[in-house]
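Following up on my earlier thread - several people asked me to post the actual chain instead of describing it. Fair enough. Here it is, all 146 residues.
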Amino acid sequence: MKSISVWISTFLIITVLPLSACGQKAAIAENIPPVKLEPVDGTDFMQMVLTEKAFERLDIQTAPIREEQVNDSQQKVIPYAAVMYGLQGETWTYTNPEPLVFIRQPIVIDYIEGNLAFLLEGPDIGIEVVVVGAAELFGAEVGVSK
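Reply from S.P.:
Thanks for posting it. Predicted structure:
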């Protein structure tokens, strides 16, 4: 009888102990912040580096800044969905210069036509801008939470 209880105790220790360690690893992984903020030199903006999981949860979508012929000149164009407005009427967009990295950049809009914003000033042609998820990025940048 004594040997059965020893076997049961051994079995429980072998099976339960590793499970408790898994729980600790999961708890440690959950403490990783979803975004890392780094100051952008010469601006009041922050560069945001998201974790892969945060990026997936936010379902961020981007589109490239493109150039379009307007009258006799070329003009930068972004989807109007990529335009963000500040409290004082300032405008900006979030760029995605490399995977999981997002930076708010000021833009100057010449005019809006349909779902396009034609820019006088803004990031370079080809840079990706956020068209879905910008409000969530703004909240992460300025510290808005639940």
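The chain has three helices and eleven strands. That should answer part of your original question.
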